[in-house]
Amino acid sequence: MIIKPKIRGFICITAHPEGCNAHVQQQIDYVKKQKPIGNGPKKVLVLGASTGYGLASRIAAAFGSKAATLGVFFERPEEAPDRPASAGWYNSVAFEKAAAKEGLYAKSINGDAFSNEVKQQVIDTIKKDLGTVDLVVYSLASPRRMDPKTGQTFKSCLKPIGQTFTSRTLDTDKGVVQNVTIGPASEDDIFATTKVMGGEDWEWWMDALHEAKVLAHGTNSVAYSYIGPEITWPVYTNGTIGKAKEHLEHSAEKINALLKLYRGKAFVSVNKAVVTQASSAIPVVPLYISILFNIMKEKGLHEDCIEQMYRLFADNMYNGSYLNFDEKGRVRLDDWEMKPEIQEAVKKVWDSINTENLKSLADFDGYQKDFLKLFGFGIESVDYERDVSITL
Ligand code: NAD
Fold it and tell me: What pTM does this model have?
């Protein structure tokens, strides 16, 4: 069938199999052009492996370090006759095919990573196929989580704490800069968001892997976070999601203590703002990203997920390099984004941005291209007028 993007707010409900394949291949090609990652990870478990930072981590480990990878994600396969799969499904099929071509082990488990069943399935698969893993990447971004111990479902939200927040935001569908007002979170909102996006599940994963004796000597584990500029703090860093990320940092300390048994490390890496399905849902952030991209591209400092993840492994975690921590024990891959000259330039634009000057003062075209690419659209090498099979 001919598949076109169908955008509903900040989500695209269709995905293009060949486009997703090409997008994954672009990331693989990027890694293969870099130097191999010396002393890199060899058996890697990636939780949230189908899109965004998790997929890029998987690609960097596999194609930069020849790692065997086991990926976990929550995606929708295609449904005959005419419902394409979700982008993450196509990405993962594309990844597995590319890995197989190079003789790299790559298996995936599609299911709820928060559940006990998927944890058990992963442990069984590691025992059967790999014996142990030496890197666990925790890159889940989810709107909800069912706590398997109580059966209760929690929904995360993006709200300020203790105040109503009004800011400029971008309707990314229409290209309109407008105001958004978000009311303050309740205690329940804060608790629920921490349950979903905090570190409890990461801790449970690491405990389960430890108890099952499937962690190798030297095992490392990393989870991802974001801080960003003050203009987004009320809805991000000082909001419900920021509380969850604070919890994630406490979990990193606990997991780090556990991994000392293996002479490994656990830490949070604060990554750069990029366009992903998760970040496009956050109010205010897409407008900031559009301005940021313009400035970072101008200064030759722009990175996407794959450049960030290759840099994490090659320049920070492996290759004889060592981890540089900030005062809170986090690795800062957002160092280029947070450079004072970049942030001062963003702030200047932020004060004057409006719908009329959006295209000249911000990289809204780049934002839209990146957004479409998440779903396999807008890639030059793909003929979107061609009838394609919905099965990759
Ligand atoms: P994403 O939406 O691209 O990826 C989320 C992944 O989680 C997907 O693979 C999805 O299938 C998986 N997932 C969601 N619910 C699941 C479930 N119940 N079971 C199994 N898998 C599930 O998101 P992303 O932006 O790459 O975010 C990953 C992490 O990076 C998050 O912690 C996020 O806060 C962080 N981060 C993102 C940015 C950014 O700008 N996007 C910046 C810094 C840090």
Answer: 0.98
